[in-house]
């Protein structure tokens, strides 16, 4: 199981947006954003967060959770 969960990520992203409407309404948006970032990491981009895991997808989830990347 991934930590944080999709619903936690969606809640945090919507809280950060500061808008009256939800920025993220589906898990699909979270999946697309993290997969794009994971591909960037695999291609050689440096992680934006301190982490102990070598897995690109886990790093991307952590970055999204910490607000280092955002969903467009």
Secondary-structure element order, as H and E? Answer: HHH
Q: What proportion strand? A: under 5%
| Quaternary class | single chain
- Catalogue the unreliable spans: none
Give the CA-CA distance, first to last residue: 25 Å
- Average of per-residue pLDDT values: 85
- Secondary-structure-derived class: mainly alpha
Q: Which sheet architecture does the biggest sheet show?
A: none
Q: Helical segment tally? A: 3
Overall 3D shape? elongated
Q: How much helix is in the residues?
A: 40-55%
Summary of the model, kept short:
The protein has helices at 6-17, 27-42, 56-66.
Topology of helices and strands:
Layout: H1 6-17, H2 27-42, H3 56-66
Helix pairs in contact: 2-3
Describe this structure in words.
The model has no long low-confidence stretch (mean pLDDT 85). The protein is mainly α and 72 residues long. The chain has helices at 6-17, 27-42, 56-66. Helix 2 packs across helix 3 (56-66). The chain has one domain (6-14, 24-66). The protein is 54% helix and 0% strand. It is elongated, with a radius of gyration of 12 Å. It has 3 helices and no strands. It starts with 5 loop residues before the first helix and ends in a 6-residue tail after the last helix.
Keywords:
single chain; 72 residues; mainly alpha; 3 helices; 54% helix
